[in-house]
Write a structure and sequence with these properties.
490 residues, mainly alpha
């Protein structure tokens, strides 16, 4: 089916269509769990091991600071979505408030982000599978390919299936972290030895304090921690296919800050109170390390299944997001027109398969660089994340300026303390880029890649820019009030 065709419902009682032609197939239950799951990903389950090894207990402070600015970015996105929900997310807002060139850069960098993130995720899946000795002889790239094929199939079926799969993925992650927090708190409170070590605050004070390697390593690590929060903006894209945006979104966004405090700051604090920070290592989930030291048979296997779920969840979210972002670019004339294609279930299948083709490069990299690939791609993904978040905040600033001029009506979910909070958030993102340069060699080389990326973006704009392909869609996208009326009529 071409982008000019009317998408057909995949069930007789299919929900209303969005202005972009998607189904409003995501319910309150799914959106709320997606917002939770987006804040819990591979960066915590796998990345925390190497991060603790690098900076020790100060990792909790780094998570807290990064979490605050990530939440402010999310509030900026929330104000944009309440102004006008769209499955094109920040790409659509960049088009409206910053112009077509900014929209192209925003979309291209978001695609770059998720392309790199997807490679990280399929690498994580392979690493987790090697936890079991039975699979030790299976090449890493084989597991990466299997994971990719599985998640691609689920994304092609329809948004309801994506939402349901992500709901259960997120539920497993939340349940597992909650179980760890309960068990860990009980072990700490009852002073139960872990691996022969007595638990408590002395594990921090007697092992170098909060900053065992000094302040600079903790500052440099900020860019790696930013990656841990990289999927929280997904809720803005998913809101475009939500059945009741106005009621669900503000509650889901406001709850994110408490989840960050509990699941990141609380979890890392508990980890360093249960074992010396030197006990955690790169490539091994810190949760697996804890349960192994605790001596409970089989628990480490269960936790490894959970972290495997987290990686699959992130991969699932990445395919969903890039499919919508690439199609938004194509409709605006900033990407090849074939990417506007949607299948009979209102899924942007061409855009999703384009992303899969990039992920296949990750499978190849897993063949040639099985040990270095995780850290290399993690740093590259950070550039895309910072770019995406920066564009979101810039769009919110322009939206608020238009509201203050009286050109647009005020939203019901304004970003707190704007515009000061918005400018501070942007300054923080710039600071993260500067700190990346000191993370030699990966971070330094990543910064050196920026001119190359700029050149590729310039070439891409000249090659792909064409007449917008969105003539099949309404010339103006309805506001949230108009969208609510449309939903009620259906």
């Amino acid at each position: 089916m071409s982008h000019n065709a009317t998408p057909q419902p995949d069930t007789p009682d299919a929900p209303a269509l969005t202005p972009e032609g998607y189904h409003r197939g995501l319910g309150k239950r799914q959106i709320q769990m997606i917002s939770i799951g987006g804040a819990i990903g591979t960066g915590l389950f796998l990345g925390a091991g190497s991060r603790l090894q690098q900076v020790g207990p100060s990792l909790a402070l780094v998570y807290m600071v990064c979490g605050i600015f990530a939440f402010l970015m999310l509030r900026a996105l929330g104000e944009l979505v309440m102004y006008r929900p769209t499955s094109g997310s920040f790409v659509s807002y960049a088009q409206e408030f910053l112009g077509p060139k900014a929209s192209f850069v925003a979309g291209a960098m978001a695609f770059f982000n998720w392309a790199m993130t997807g490679i990280v995720d399929i690498t994580a899946v392979a690493l987790y599978m090697h936890f079991w000795g039975t699979f030790a002889s299976v090449p890493q790239w084989v597991f990466a390919l299997i994971a990719l094929l599985l998640i691609t199939g689920m994304n092609m079926i329809g948004v309801r299936w994506f939402g349901e799969l992500e709901f259960w993925f997120s539920l497993i992650k939340v349940a597992a972290l909650s179980l760890f927090l309960i068990i860990g708190a009980a072990v700490l409170g009852l002073r139960v030895p872990v691996g022969g070590e007595t638990t408590g605050i002395h594990l921090i004070t007697q092992n170098g304090g909060l900053f065992p390697h000094g302040l600079l390593p903790a500052l440099v690590l900020v860019q790696g921690v930013v990656f841990a929060y990289s999927a929280i903006e997904l809720i803005g894209t998913a809101a475009g296919e939500c059945q009741d945006v106005k009621d669900v979104l503000p509650k889901a966004i406001n709850a994110v800050i408490w989840r960050i405090a509990l699941f990141y700051v609380g979890t890392v604090s508990l980890l360093v109170l249960l074992l010396p920070w030197q006990a955690y290592h790169a490539g091994i989930s810190p949760f697996v390390t804890f349960f192994e030291r605790l001596g409970v048979p089989g628990i480490d296997t269960v936790m490894n299944i959970v972290v495997l779920t987290a990686a699959l969840s992130s991969l699932n979210s990445g395919l969903y997001s890039t499919g919508r972002v690439l199609r938004a670019l194509a409709l605006d004339g900033s990407a090849p027109r074939f990417l506007t294609y949607m299948n009979s279930r209102s899924v942007p299948s061409a855009a999703i398969l384009m992303t899969v083709s990039i992920y296949l490069v990750g499978v190849v990299l897993n063949y040639f660089l099985p040990t270095q690939i995780f850290e290399i791609v993690l740093n590259l993904a950070s550039l895309g994340i910072l770019s995406t978040w920066g564009f979101i905040v810039l769009c919110q600033i322009r939206l608020r300026q238009a509201i203050n001029r009286g050109d647009l009506p005020a939203t019901t979910f304004p970003m707190p303390w704007a515009p000061i909070s918005a400018w501070l958030t942007l300054a923080f993102f710039v600071g993260v880029l500067v700190l990346m340069a000191f993370d030699y060699p990966n971070g330094t080389w990543t910064i050196c890649c920026i001119p190359v990326l700029a050149g590729l973006l310039t070439i891409g704009w000249k090659v792909f820019r064409q007449t917008p392909a969105s003539e099949a869609l309404p010339t103006t996208v309805p506001s949230i009030a108009q969208t609510d009326d449309c939903v009620k009529k259906h």
